[in-house]
Design goal:
Strands 2, 3, 8, 9 and 10 form a 5-stranded antiparallel β-sheet that branches. A 4-stranded antiparallel β-sheet has the order 5-6-4-7, with no helix packed on it. The chain has a two-stranded antiparallel ribbon with strand order 1-11. The longest helix is centred in the last third of the chain and has 38 residues. Strand 8 and strand 9 form a beta hairpin. It folds into 4 domains: 83 residues, 2-Layer Sandwich (Alpha-Beta Plaits), CATH 3.30.70; 87 residues, no CATH class; 65 residues, Alpha-Beta Plaits; 293 residues, no CATH class. With 613 residues, it is of the alpha+beta class. The chain is built from 21 helices and 11 strands.
């Protein structure tokens, strides 16, 4: 369709009408408010920090509550209760502290287990002559070595493991040196009870804390029933409102709003702003940009926006790009089974349920249609699933014949076709560039810098077609020759010296390598399409190895579902990434300037918030 033209809008109203004015603009959702920079105006300096803190708390609370909520309510479109978010975070924090404490106590219990059979306290106080030690020797220390520590010592082995020996020693005198020689590590403790008694106490404490944790879990489950009160939309609306108020220019008795409005609704907006003076004027070069496209092209607007919004010189590329985007995605994904799944799921989410990411779902819906089409052209339905099932379980192979070619049998034909499509898209890009230059009245640049290359590329294409119709060879050579001559004579036209001018023209012919490289990039259409089908066939072969039996059916079903799910995910991602690359690198680079700013109207959260209040 087109890029929506903007009008600059200036609104002057009484200060007393400011809130009413903002309410109207917010409900319209059609005006981007800029910071008012007129001389003599002042600005408020309201801080959204408190609201941003509430947004962060609501997001964290919503994430926590997912684990405790069976009924997943619509958090996105619900109400906002900062108090509920704080209560959830505080409750969860208490539970985390209890969980951490339980973990620490269990570590202590684990340590005391090693000395559980010791029937005296680990912290038994020494007398005037007799002393006590509890600790660990390496398992390599023998019982004989333990007995020989000192004539005035008694060593009791409490527990033995593969690597350690836990002991209690009663002794007189000084045995420190001997213990160190044997690798003794003392377990110091002031425990006045036996380890068994202490373990019992700690287990009781654990049960008490676990009961507290369960009570907190129940509280979180109860709070989860109010999950629809954790929406961040109303909070984002508050933040947007604060930012808008900070941009408004203020005098003693008036407020001034400066911004942009789409030209097609500018007069409607003017009519809604009753009681205010509204001035519409032509925008400056820094005006924002938005698109207006139909159901076919609008889904890819975000693809273009991710690359860059158009500049004032650009056309809206989405309608043309959408055709190539869907075409190339389908060629690379190229399986009718996968395509039908995309059509059903994405069609439901994008057109019937109208999910949050509706545009993305609609884009994949059209990609699914293209994928189904190319799957039929290639004879691929979950690879060769029809053949595998009929041959393995019914003994009579039924082949799904391709409507055009089998990529595995005729890869060269598919490669040539892919490169031909690349040539067409790049030529279309150059033609768009030619049109844009003519529209900007840059006639010389259009014919000399772009038209000559179009002539060269078309000449080469016609020459190649001459392989099938000989008269075309001469026509192709003539077209390419005229284009080359034009490049040599015009590419150095800014140079005064005629030798330098001609030399610059000759050097410009080197750019042909760039065009060839770009065209060859479209070979990925063949490569990815081939890989999708081959991997799908391998999955079916593996599933068929169990043969015609109950085990074979189960084996086939498991491998089929898991294998095709993985192939679907990997190759769908590959098709998405590489289709984007072809548009960004090979296509847009031929004509698209970019660098524009996206139109962001005030009130984008108003509708979502008001619908649920």
């Amino acid at each position: 369709m087109s890029i929506v033209r903007m009008k600059k809008i200036s609104v002057i109203a009484l200060s007393s009408d400011c809130e009413k004015l903002l309410d109207t603009l917010e409900s319209l959702g059609a005006v981007q408010i800029n910071s008012c920079e007129f001389d003599g105006v002042q600005h408020t300096n309201l801080s959204p920090a408190a609201v941003e803190t509430q947004i962060d708390a609501a997001k964290k609370a919503a994430e926590i509550i997912k684990k405790f909520s069976k009924d997943r309510k619509n958090i996105e479109g619900g109400r906002s209760s900062p108090e509920l978010a704080d209560e959830i975070l505080e409750t969860f924090s208490k539970k985390q502290r209890i969980t951490d404490e339980i973990g620490k106590i269990k570590l202590n219990v684990s340590a005391f287990r090693n000395y559980e059979s010791l029937d005296v306290p680990m912290g038994l106080k020494k007398s005037e002559r007799v002393k006590f030690k509890t600790g660990v020797f390496p398992a390599s220390v023998t019982e004989e070595e333990l007995r020989e520590i000192s004539p005035l010592s008694y060593t009791e082995i409490i527990k033995k493991t593969q690597s350690k020996t836990y002991v209690w020693i009663m002794y007189m005198g000084d045995i420190t040196g001997k213990l160190l020689d044997l690798g003794f590590i003392e377990e110091k403790s002031d425990l006045t009870k036996t380890c068994k008694e202490r373990i019992s106490e700690l287990n009781g404490k654990i049960r008490e804390l676990e009961n507290q944790a369960s009570e907190l879990d129940e509280k979180l489950k109860s709070l989860a029933k109010r999950s629809d009160e954790l929406s961040v939309i109303p909070l984002l609306r508050k933040t947007e409102r604060i930012e808008a108020e900070n941009k408004i220019g203020r005098t003693e008795k008036t407020v001034i709003i400066d911004g942009y409005v789409p030209e097609n609704i500018a007069e409607t907006v003017r009519g809604e702003l009753t009681g205010a003076y509204v001035e519409l004027s032509e925008p400056d070069d820094d005006a924002p940009v938005t698109f207006k496209n139909g159901v076919f092209a609008s889904p890819v607007e975000d693809i273009t926006a991710t690359y860059s919004m158009p500049s004032k010189n650009d056309i809206d590329p989405n309608s043309i790009m959408a055709f190539f985007y869907y075409l190339f995605f389908g060629m690379m994904f190229s399986d009718a089974g996968y395509g039908l799944l995309m059509v059903i799921v994405c069609g439901y989410l994008g057109f019937i349920k109208k999910a949050k990411n509706m545009k993305l779902m609609r884009m994949f819906f059209f990609c699914g249609i293209s994928t189904t089409f190319w799957g039929v052209m290639y004879g691929s339905f979950f690879g060769n699933a029809v053949t595998s099932v009929t041959e393995t379980f019914f003994g009579n192979a039924v082949a799904l014949k391709p409507l055009w070619i089998d990529p595995t049998g005729e890869p060269l034909t598919l490669l040539i076709f892919s490169i031909a499509l690349g040539f067409i898209q790049i030529t279309v890009g150059l033609c768009i560039k030619f049109y844009m230059l003519i529209r900007q009245r840059k006639i010389a640049e259009a014919f000399f810098d772009t038209g000559t290359w179009i002539l060269v590329l078309l000449g080469i294409a016609v020459y190649i077609l001459g392989m099938f119709a000989k008269p075309l060879s001469s026509v192709g050579i003539a077209m390419a020759g005229v284009g080359v001559a034009g490049l040599i004579l015009t590419q150095g036209r800014d140079k005064k010296n005629i030798i330098v001018r001609l030399f610059s023209g000759v050097i410009s012919l080197y750019d042909i390598t760039s065009y060839v490289s770009d065209i060859l990039s479209y070979s990925r259409l063949m490569a990815l399409g081939l890989s999708t089908g081959v991997i799908a066939q391998v999955i079916n072969i593996l599933g068929s190895l169990g043969g015609k039996s109950v085990v074979g059916v189960i084996m086939f079903a498991l491998i089929f579902v898991v294998g095709h799910a993985m192939n679907f995910a990997i190759n769908m991602l590959g098709a998405y990434v590489h289709t984007n690359r072809l548009q960004y690198v090979e296509f847009y680079s031929k004509f698209y300037e970019g660098g524009g700013k996206k139109f962001v109207p005030f009130g984008k959260y108003y509708k979502m918030s008001s619908e649920n209040n």
